[in-house]
């Protein structure tokens, strides 16, 4: 478990993950499941790429995602749907 704790701490300390430029990240706060569409910008995509690389290089990890205070939710693949 200490290895997983260290890995999570490293991700959380990453400047890209800590960015405050999250106003344009995908948000599910007012998402309509009938009309929702992803519009992933460059910063969000860079975080998605980081999370996917982490997942692929850590055999015990199935998925990595992040919820933000503003209601945005960075997910590794766009097959995730907004909550209904």
Q: Overview of this structure, please?
A:
The chain is globular, with a radius of gyration of 13 Å. The chain has a two-stranded antiparallel ribbon. The termini are far apart. It has helices at residues 2-13, 42-57, and strands spanning 66-67, 73-74. With 84 residues, it is mainly alpha-helical. It is 33% helix and 5% strand. It contains two helices and two strands; from the N terminus they run H-H-E-E.
Strand order of the largest sheet: 1-2
- Percent strand equals under 5%
Order of helices and strands: HHEE
Distance between the termini: 34 Å
Helix/strand/pairing class, anyone? mainly alpha
Shape: globular
Low-confidence residue ranges: none
Question: What does this entry show, briefly?
Answer:
This protein is mainly α.
Secondary structure blueprint with pairings:
Blueprint: H1 2-13, H2 42-57, E1 66-67, E2 73-74
Antiparallel strand pairs: 1-2
What labels would you give this structure?
two-stranded antiparallel sheet, mainly alpha, globular, 2 helices, 2 strands, 84 residues
């Amino acid at each position: 478990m200490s290895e997983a704790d260290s890995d999570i701490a490293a991700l959380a300390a990453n400047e890209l993950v800590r960015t405050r430029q999250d106003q344009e990240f995908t948000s599910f706060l007012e998402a309509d499941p009938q009309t929702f569409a992803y519009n992933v910008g460059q910063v969000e995509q860079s975080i998605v790429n980081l999370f996917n690389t982490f997942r692929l290089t850590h055999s015990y990890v199935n998925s990595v995602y992040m919820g933000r205070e503003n209601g945005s939710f960075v997910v590794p693949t766009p097959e995730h749907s907004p909550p209904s």
